[in-house]
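USER:
Try writing one entry.

ASSISTANT:
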Amino acid sequence: MLMFEIHPVDIGRRDWRRDGAVWTCGSSWIEPLVNPVLESALDVSRPGECVVTVRERDTAGDTRLRLTAANMRAWPGDHVTLELAQGRVTVHAGVMGTAPIHIAARNGVFVGSWNLAELRSWFDVECLNGPSVVRALLRNPVYSSSTMFDGVHRVTERATATMTSTGIQVTYPDPADHILAARDLADTVDAVGAFEKVLTYVVQRLPDPDGTAAVELSGGADSANVLLTAAERYRVVRTVGIEVAGRAGLEQRYRRRTLAAHVGAVDEVVHARDHLPFDPSIRKQPHSPSTAYYREAFDAMRDRVSAASARVVYLGLGGDEVNALHPGERVTDSPTNGYGHLPPPPWLGPRSWGSLGDLETDAAPVSVVPLPTLDAFALHNPTYLDAGIWPIAPLAHPLVGRFTEQLPASHRRGKRMFRERLARAGMTPRVTHPDEPESFLDLMESGMRTNGLVALKRIQSESLLAEGGWINHAGLVDAIDRYEGTGQADPRLADLVTVELGLRSLQ
């Protein structure tokens, strides 16, 4: 929600001034995201203290609250508060974690941004954090203040980061409370109707975005429910989504067109086949390893939203998590395929093997918004902020989570309540219960065959991660040269793709 560069000599000064969208003081600057649904303020009313807060404009919040980190802890919308006082810079994050800030320090200067690539000159790219890199290699994310680079920290939800001359310290909050046992519902209770009211309240709490409202529409039950509620709020909405190929794509197209026509939306389609993964022209741009891996199509989708002059985009993220079953409700008769129960893949190198026991190091406590949703936000949302667009995920809001946690398992299993709401809106079973949900598996295979091996060869010599030799020494790509001209992929690469995508072979 903001970027900053703070020099120690400017901490405690009161002569900050506004220069367009940026506050400046001496060599320091603070730049909040400019968006109609956000508001920002700078407060220097107390001697030796400067407080900057960026927060969602929330109709449920008490706007008389002084913009301090302590007061913002009670703010119902997302926020970031930056405090400069007593020789230190303190960053406090809100509960939603919409786009977490990355922070770093060098020579006493403190910097922060939601886009890690913006900080690439402020840390040593050769100093990799072993456990964080192995988490990424194994697709085993851990929500943490640690990043892939030593010296760079992420301010996780409700956390407080303090930067002083001695370094950076991130303090986690207490674990969030959750309802772990469902309630029985009386026969007269209409759970679907109650869900509609909760979701409507969450969407209506934000002011009008002063422009087009867009909705990411995949054709699944989550984004479809968000679309129905957003369409009730705004006269005109624009839907945008990535369409996969094959029969699954045809079914996806039918669902998207049916839903868009139902609410009178203007629909934009990004064809995945036109944006294969590992596109060499895209991969030459600076890119944070903590954001979306498949950026080719997602960047194209963001550009469609931006071209439509949309200032907010509604997402279906969080739907899987709010429908998740409690531990006692799950069927445990099938073995897990996680790395905790299977041997690690053979392409791991010695340093990777040495970090396997540290994968949970510095893990953040239980959050208000489910951890998988927060990880999805960190992957998906920064690219929208780069374009000045604010992403909103109503299904991830704490009020929705609190409501669904109490529902009987029968309402959450298979997303029954979500699908029933679509049926009440007039959707046919072809929309509410698709036989073949969309999948990126075929697309990933095509991208790997077309661009993947070329990209990996280039990574050996050009990638920031490979410069320090960490990835090469890990044994992931160091044998590619030996297979040049053979027409065959490195067997370990085939193992990697088999583990990742469930494919039998690359040949």
